[in-house]
Amino acid sequence: MTANFDFIIVGAGTAGCTLARRLIDTQQVTVALIEAGKKDTNPFIHMPIGVAALSSITGINWNYNTTPQPTLNERQLFWPRGKVMGGSSSINAMVYIRGQYSDYDEWEAMGAKGWSADEVLPLFKLSEDNTRGTNPFHGVGGPIGVSDLRYHDPSSDAFVAAAQHVQLPQVDDFNTHERLGLGIYQVFHRDGQRCSTAKGFIGPVLSHPNLTVLTHTHVRKVLIEGGEAKGVECEINGEILTYTANREVILSGGAINSPQLLMLSGIGDKSHLAEHMIECVADIPAVGQHMQDHLDVVVQVKAKSACGYAVMPRLLPKYISHGMQYLTQKKGLLTSNAAEAGGFAASRYGSAEKPDLQFHFIPGLIVDHGRQLAFDYGFSLHVCHLYPRSTGSIRLASKSPQDAPNIDPNYLSDEADLYALVDGVRLARQIFTAPEFTHYGLSPWYPIASSLDEELSDEAIIDFIRERAETVYHPVGTCRMGSVDDPNTVVDPDCRVKYVTRLRVVDASVMPKIMGGNTNAPTIMIAEKIAANIIAEL
Ligand SMILES: Cc1cc2nc3c(=O)[nH]c(=O)nc-3n(C[C@H](O)[C@H](O)[C@H](O)COP(=O)(O)OP(=O)(O)OC[C@H]3O[C@@H](n4cnc5c(N)ncnc54)[C@H](O)[C@@H]3O)c2cc1C
After folding, report:
1. Would you state the pLDDT for residue 1?
2. Dist CA 249 CA 231 (whole Å)
């Protein structure tokens, strides 16, 4: 069976939904939005506190694991990625952060012409419907709801007030030019619920006659003839089908699956493709290379007094009352995204102008990405390093589209990345010693110590990092964008794949360099920019 569309977009995730909506709004083209996962009907996706359970729900997740990491005691780290309408925007923690504006000037300097901070700011504003209204940094009326939390735990206020204790300012808006300090995050919410890109961009146009959304449809490869992308080969319920594109095929499968799809289609390092007996269509060694991620470690404390979002029977009446509030008014604790507060600080390698550490504060004890329960009162303070020097790769494990690729982030291969996290752990422990936390009666859980005041050696902190560090879910860079002449790039600044016509990659994989913050808003921005470029040429 074959069907024909103007544009085929592979992956209904953060970027794919954004692109599809902008193309549909022109009323000039037909679009197939193809998603391997299912519809986003699971209520835990939409109820913000459900985020704590989402990594355990296997049916909406690719459930990847990295290769053993030598610097992390040979551990294989769990990498959840959304396999559902909305992609990872349907399972993420909803924190709305754009990065440091100067990150985009660096992209431009690396060869991504047109992506400077001044050029991308209007694109961030375009998709945004911010409940705080418009100002030079924010927009209203866009498809994506951005809101202040309707509810946050008092301990998140304590965390923000603790800023003074560690000589940091309090920050009201992390998306302006200045963001050093601690504050409560704005979130991807509309009316107290998650606003994924599926909900914000696709929901309102789902029945548009020009849009065909195909779920449960796994794209196996791009069909390329004479150096031109013609369509895609897919699998639905064991049946192989092809869809053809009059204009373009756009890969928006994310930083793991887009490079995998390119390689399965014969685009990549020729010798690596030969290892898997895949005929090379375009020899681009950079495919799957230059992967960067934010490595994260969680400093956790136990509390003597009842507090936060603990899994404890005595809190049941509170949860029932909040459940009623959520059902009737979309208010209360169930509208929390768990990672309520956070902020930015500088390690020995950062500065006030360019902080290189980010915090996510959770008023509870979350263990193993929420896949295990901890029956105790306490708090978790994630700290991640924003500008890692280590780079990793995605490589094929086999030529079967159903097999996960080898994911090797190559964490901490540069020692500076390790020592930046050492500074982060020290600062996180110090935050918990602030007077604002005294009444909780805190004691250390991880890293293990006799008290929060106990000075830990570098070696003890390094052991803790090697044993406990995890991803904070921001892989990027595996289809790097930049100048066509640069051997380290896969796509040009218009996200067109080099040496193949009518084929683009548009998602987090094209970032030339990881930006300093969470990656969802920047990925929407990338899709907004390419959509505008495509539309201008229609
Ligand atoms: C647990 C978690 C928490 C996070 N928290 C935050 C946060 O709080 N704030 C933030 O800004 N960022 C966060 N992120 C990161 C952010 O969500 C991602 O960077 C962003 O969603 C990436 O968008 P994307 O379009 O590149 O990929 P995705 O959104 O992952 O979309 C890729 C889509 O392609 C589909 N697909 C892949 N391969 C195929 C195929 N072969 N055939 C068909 N379909 C395919 C996938 O199923 C998926 O739907 C988090 C991510 C995770 C996983």
Report:
1. 57
2. 6
d(CA 169, CA 345) in angstroms, rounded, equals 10
Q: Is 479 in the pocket of ligand 1 (CB under 6 A)?
A: no
Residue closest via CA to ligand 1's atom 27 equals: 254
Residue 340: both structure tokens together: 């309520």
How far apart CA 498 and CA 23 sit, in angstroms, is 23
Residues contacting residue 84 through CB under 8 Å, at least 6 positions apart: 35, 37, 38, 39, 40, 42, 45, 60, 61, 90, 91, 198
User: How far, in Å, is the centroid of ligand 1 from the Cα of 12?
Assistant: 9
Residue intervals of the chain classified under CATH 3.30.560.10 are 43-61+87-111+146-194+292-393+410-471
Q: How many CB atoms sit inside 10 A of residue 400's CB? A: 11
Instruction: Say yes or no: CB of residue 518 within 6 Å of ligand 1.
Output: yes
What's the confidence (pLDDT) of residue 148?
98
Using the mean position of ligand 1's atoms as its centre, give its distance from the Cα of residue 81 in Å: 5
Is 290 noted as a catalytic residue in this protein?
Answer: no
Question: In degrees rounded to 5, what are phi and psi of residue 97?
Answer: -140, 140
pLDDT at 373: 84
Q: Select from 1.10.390.10, 3.30.560.10, 3.40.47.10, 3.40.1280.10 the CATH code of 43-61+87-111+146-194+292-393+410-471.
A: 3.30.560.10
Mean pLDDT, the chain, integer: 97
**CATH level 3 topology of 1-38+62-86+112-145+195-291+394-409+475-506+514-538:** FAD/NAD(P)-binding domain (3.50.50)
